[in-house]
Amino acid sequence: MRIAVLLKEVPDTYSDREMNLETGLTDRSGDVVADEVSERAVEAALRIAEAAGDSAQVEVEILSVGPESSADSVRRGIAMGASEAYVVSDDALVGADVTLTAQVLAKLVEKQGYDLVVAGGMSSDGAAGVVAPFVAELLGWPVLTNLTELSIDGDSVRATQASETATAELSAQLPAVVSVADGFADPRYPNFKGLMAAKKKELNTVSLAELGVDPEDFTHPRAIMVDIERRPERERGEIIDGNSTAATRLVDFLESKNLI
Question: Where does the Electron transfer flavoprotein alpha/beta-subunit N-terminal domain start and stop, copy by copy (predicted)?
Fold first, then answer.
């Protein structure tokens, strides 16, 4: 059995993030990391492999679309325990929308021949949350999303989907696409051996030509950025000091906002 994990490099959420107001693209020249929810997807795949045991020969491999500079982030998946990584990098993919990204990933999945695709539910930069369903649609496979537990039972994938109001038990026939939520188990920390192995590992590069994807083919639906502007800075609110008039002023303020 072969499992593909979709891993994305994103700007570090603990650093300042800027967007180019002319192109609408996120500035990725600063601190970048493997997206945490992608690491949770790697964890989900590794748990399936461990549960199957050595005799089952379950292979976990990383798939990524991004610049050549994203190699260190991709190697994070190798350090955690994945065996191979495939990266599609092309200048024509700069600023690719979710439909083009999904098309590239679906073609790569077809080319490599996987049984299960595991993705993070929503990246911390774009936060679209639709890449996994788009990939499944292009492949013609079933998709289970927003999962907090995941396992394989014979030729089926079984999962738990939790929300604020309900918990659902789901299943689908393989091959399938699944995405895990932030509520999935925390990703493991790579050990020293894994880090050294990842550092030496040669990543497999794949071109758009090999996949037969034309990024300029607009017969496929594409999302195009037409405008972007900075969010207005928050105005300084009124400060009510704790003096003898504070209670009255607070009541007046709440009343002006129709809160009482």
Answer: 23-215
CATH architecture of 2-211: 3-Layer(aba) Sandwich (3.40)
DSSP state of 26: B
The tokens describing 162, both together, are 């939790």
State pTM to two decimals.
0.82
Rounded Cα distance between 19 and 59, Å, is 38
Beta-strand relationship, 167-173 and 84-88: unpaired
Residues facing residue 34 across a β-bridge: 9
d(CA 123, CA 129): 7
Run means of pLDDT, 10 residues per run, the chain, 260 residues: 94 70 65 90 96 84 91 94 94 87 96 95 83 96 95 94 89 96 92 92 93 88 75 78 83 87
Q: Is 31 helix (H, G, I), strand (E, B) or coil?
A: coil
For helices 131-139 and 98-112, give the axis angle rounded to 10 degrees. 50
DSSP annotation of 19 reads B
Please give the Cα distance from 169 to 122 (Å, whole number): 21
